[in-house]
Amino acid sequence: MTTGQLAGNIVHFARALRRAGLPVGPAAVVDAIRAVEIAGLKARVDFYWTLHSVFVTRHDHHPIFDQAFRLFWRTRAPFQSETSPEDEDGEDEREEGMPPAARRVAEAMLGATEGAAARRKSEIEIDARLTVSEAEALRRRDFAQMDAAEIARAEREIDNLRLPDDRIPSRRAMAATSGTIDPRRTLRSSLRAGGDMIMLRYRQPRLVQPPIVMLCDISGSMSPYTRILLHFFHALGRQRRVSTFLFGTRLTNVTRQLRHRDVDEALAACSGTVADWSGGTRIAAALEDFNRHWSRRVLGQGAIVLLVTDGLERDGIDDLAREMDRLHRSCRRLIWLNPLLGFEGFEARARGIRAMLPHVDELRSVHSLEAVTDICRALSGDASTAIDPRTWLRAA
User: Fold this and answer.
1) CA of 327: how far to CAs of 57, 206, 289, in Å?
2) What angle do CA 146, 142, 352 make, to 5 degrees?
3) Which residue among 89, 155, 327, 394 is the one 20 to 30 A from 39 at the CA level?
4) Strand order in the sheet with 180-181
5) 3-state DSSP of 220-239
6) Residue 330: which pLDDT band, with cuts at 50, 70 and 90?
7) Which of helix, strand or coil describes residue 19?
8) CA 302, CA 242: separation in Å to the nearest integer?
9) At residue 131, does pLDDT exceed 60?
10) Over 70: is that where the pLDDT of 206 sits?
11) Which CA distances in Å does 226 have to 143, 255, 369?
């Protein structure tokens, strides 16, 4: 029988996992206590995997549980656990290479350091004092001018964004009570009745949400916006089928990396995959690579393309115009998101910008929270805040 102290420690451990982001409910706690009673406490590794089998339900939950087990049972119980029960060496080295999710476990459970606790207390006080006018100023502030605390609040706001219902009719049909007559279903229905009665069957187009394709510039000129834009892409990916490509001097598909449930793990995976971060930019070459190797794979079902770049391309202007035209004809809508629109006095004088403007449906800014919210509305077809690209061509 599990002692009361051990059962209480398991309850506290489950609460720590829940604070760290694992979906641990009361039923799982009861199951964990019963599982420990059945498995016994003969070895630390058995205890580890007993709790693991109950609390871990997804592959990406493993590093969080692993770090939490090591920290909790080292300080709260007689089990001197390490990062892994099979490997008792190299603990200090693993502290330095701790993944973002595991580092957050330490802060969620132990506070990590007094500095971390003070930062959280400061954030709470700041949030409590945040007035309506301050919140409005935060929504309009440029991402490049935000400090670390404001970026953190902006990321929390982005996590709460919800996409509108922008379903469109697809080529596939579904059964309906009215609409177009479905000859095949009508014939089959009449055969079941021996052909004496013909009951008409109807069909209508199936409504689907169009996929979203992100093409994001990560060159040096876009570096102040890169992280928070990736956070935005990750938030959209939780609600919609999103394909994300990053480009500087080359094109990199990071769709799989951004599928991590934990946003910190997703961004860390992206940074480890992309080799040309904050370097130069070759927009034409990147678009050519996408059009040649990826467009037919991801631009089906009326896909919407969000092209995020400042358009500061110097070479290959003719190639850029040709690839933009090809991309425009391959998708349902091409929306250009340019953070430079957030600056007063912006003019479309750069050769790259002028080459791209004739081939986009909408031109929008992406420099602030307010602009990101407008983008979500734009995906439903709301063009109230869109800027006609031809306006900039006439102005220049």
Assistant:
1) 40, 26, 11
2) 130
3) 89
4) 168-176, 202-208, 180-181
5) HHHHHHHHHHHHHHHHHHCC
6) very high
7) helix
8) 13
9) no
10) yes
11) 10, 15, 14
